[in-house]
Design brief:
170 residues, alpha+beta, 3 helices, 8 strands, 19% helix, binds coenzyme A
Amino acid sequence: MLDTGLMDISIEIIPAAATRPLRQRLLRPHQRAEELVYVGDDDPDSLHLGARAPTGELVGIVTVSRTPPPNSDNDTAWRMRAMATIEPMRGRGIGRALARASIGYVAARGGRLIWCTARIPAAKFYEQLGFERRGDVFEVKRIGPHCFMERRVQPEESAWWDDVVEPADP
Ligand SMILES: CC(C)(COP(=O)(O)OP(=O)(O)OC[C@H]1O[C@@H](n2cnc3c(N)ncnc32)[C@H](O)[C@@H]1OP(=O)(O)O)[C@@H](O)C(=O)NCCC(=O)NCCS
């Protein structure tokens, strides 16, 4: 449980479909939620996490999938994407908790690298988590400038997975 100072937030495994309304609202408002199905979303080892408030509302999301970086065949690399926290809850550690849980998941599966294409205004957030920029800034149509970022994953970081709430058995 994450104490944000306002309320306790739990980091939970959620279905891919549950991420789409926040992907649409916070990341790609020019697209429809049903268009926001990303490659790898439904891969068996892909992970979708939600930060849930006591009211049941999802206040943050992230997805990780086993995907090599561009022009690489590194099968220990995972991609982090669709990271977002709702505006009133930003700056309270929710994004960091989602990212750490994702890194924990990757570490527990033998992953050794995690990467993302970061929006430039969010690059500092990723730097705080140990990601480093690689290469030039590039433009993504209708969204803005991005940079490639990556971070090594250490086996012991699997401990960051421990606080995640897994769905109850039906
Ligand atoms: C980027 C984003 C996910 C961060 O979520 P958040 O819940 O506010 O992040 P946290 O509160 O966990 O921040 C962790 C650290 O990063 C810093 N940080 C967060 N966002 C930052 C930003 N935009 N610029 C600089 N630093 C930032 C925080 O100050 C904090 O630092 P601290 O450890 O020194 O206190 C959120 O701002 C967001 O949803 N932005 C819009 C969508 C987006 O751009 N997503 C990323 C797509 S690549």
